[in-house]
Amino acid sequence: MSEFVVRTISAVVMVSVAICALFLGGYWFAVFVAAAATAVFYEWTRLTKGWGAGWYISGFAYSLLAALALLWLRDRADSGLWLVVWAFIIVWATDIGAYLVGRSIGGPKLAPAISPGKTWAGFYGGVAAATILSGAWVLVMQLHWILILVAPLFSVVAQGGDLFESWIKRRAGVKDSGRLLPGHGGAFDRLDGLLPVAILTALISFAGVA
């Protein structure tokens, strides 16, 4: 079985599980989020082993804040379920758009010293895809219009989270954060963009902006 097929099957399974847990809510979503956050933190500690207590504490805080943000959005925020879906769309559309456009166009590298495969074309493709698809979701679900304006920024944040994780892996001298997900590496590899996006989405909702 080719790597592309493995990646595709794994992606479909992961998305299906995430969506099912999200819509079930309650205990199911809490367990799903807790498991994901625990896996991210575990991989973070393996990557940053020997870097000092500050990295351990920051990894714990980062994964915990993202988990709490998702749980708060799902159960406490107005239109929380649809906001979480919006955050998912931002991250997934960014990843897919960046991959497809980057592979199709190529061109100048975005951050060759950190992640040689990423290009500026992919960067803009990811922002465009996230803005269009999340904007459509906002209109269909009648969410706050401000989400359309912040979508490009959140897409940039998602790609920043990806680059941050790539920098950690490069410093640690590894290709993937783990081997939990066939064809995708570890949990941190798949959730690197969602972590900051979830936190920011909860913040703008808590502040009453969206």
Automatic annotation (TrEMBL):
Its main location: membrane. GO terms for cellular component: plasma membrane. The chain crosses the membrane at residues 12-41, 53-73, 79-101, 121-139, 145-164. Pfam families: CTP_transf_1 (PF01148). PANTHER family: PHOSPHATIDATE CYTIDYLYLTRANSFERASE (PTHR46382). The lineage of its organism: Bacteria, Pseudomonadati, Pseudomonadota, Alphaproteobacteria, Sphingomonadales. This is Phosphatidate cytidylyltransferase. Belongs to the CDS family. The keyword Transferase applies. It is an enzyme of class 2 (transferase).
